Amino acid sequence: MPEIGDDLPPGERPMVAVVRAVPGHEEQLAAAIATLTAAVRREPGCREFRSFSDVANPGVFYLYEIYASTDAFRAHLKTAHVAHFFTELARHSTTDATALVQLAELQVS
């Protein structure tokens, strides 16, 4: 599971993860991501969860996530569907929790 520090900016919690399939496991990983996507979208603290496949690199997936707050993201990590996804991730991906990148939105004037 990702480590969530107390130093994240307040407010909405945007992030992105890059997930790479083990060769030959692309379909299994895509199915696990699709299942996760549907479940996370039903979480009360989820503002947005979108999953993408890389057109130029089959087997590479991008997960774009926004949670209402850091606490909403912490609650997300405690769900059964996330625990199941991490089990699938270990089976079908070369990626671990370090693939998750916390984002801070640039202020535009």
Automatic annotation (TrEMBL):
InterPro entries: ABM_dom (IPR007138), AI-2_Isomerase_LsrG (IPR050744), Dimeric_a/b-barrel (IPR011008). Keywords: Monooxygenase, Oxidoreductase. Residues 13-103 form the ABM domain. The keyword Oxidoreductase applies. Coiled coil: none annotated. One of its GO terms (molecular function) is monooxygenase activity. The keyword Repeat does not apply. This is Antibiotic biosynthesis monooxygenase. It holds the Pfam family ABM. SUPFAM superfamilies: Dimeric alpha+beta barrel.
